[in-house]
Amino acid sequence: MGTVGQLPVKLVPLTAEHWEWIRQRAHPVLCKDTTGIVALRGSKIVGALAFDSWSAGSCLGHAAIEDPRVTRRLLRALADYVFGQAGRKVMLGLTPADNERALRLNRGIGLREVYRIRDGYKPGIDYVLQEMRAEDCRWFSIPKQKVA
User: Fold this and answer.
1) Has residue 143 been placed in a domain?
2) Closest by alpha carbon to 92, among 131, 127, 125?
3) Is 89 inside a domain boundary?
4) Nearest Cα to Cα of residue 142 among 51, 80, 68, 71
């Protein structure tokens, strides 16, 4: 268990009991290969990451964070899990172009826009494809976080 500010936070694997929380906030689709990491303060979820659509080189990532103080810890866990433990080279993000808050957060944590799919989300709203590459990830060189 680690501390974020003065808050004890524990990272645990994403389970069925956590799914509805991240689904309501990040809108991922539950796939056969969905995995993830959840940040708990006591029994309260304060952040979660979900990963799906795994290929030999990449996966699609989804994030929801209620307490910004857990962001760095979750990002270190993300980097360790996706790039270290799972050995992938790329994590992808697919975000509606009208969700500027999520796009700004994604850019701030190191995702880079690589393509826009015109009308991909719905007519008039593009999907923005972003990537985070292992070799460019500033979170990957930071000491690794273990998921309980």
Assistant:
1) no
2) 131
3) yes
4) 80
Would you say 59 and 86 are in contact if contact means Cβ atoms under 8 Å apart? yes
Paired tokens of 24 = 């309501």
The number of domains in the chain is 1
Average pLDDT per run of 10 along the chain, which is 148 residues long?
A: 66 95 94 96 95 98 93 93 96 96 92 98 98 93 57
Residue 147 lies in a domain: no
3-state secondary structure of 130: strand
pTM higher than 0.70: yes
How far apart (Å, rounded) are the C-alpha atoms in residues 109 and 86? 20
Classify 59 in phi/psi space as left (phi over 0), alpha (psi -120 to 50) or beta: beta
Question: Domain for residue 56, yes or no?
Answer: yes
Q: What is the domain extent for residue 63?
A: 2-136
**How far is it, in rounded angstroms, from Cα 126 to Cα 54?**
23
Instruction: Tell me the CATH number at 124.
Output: 3.40.630.30
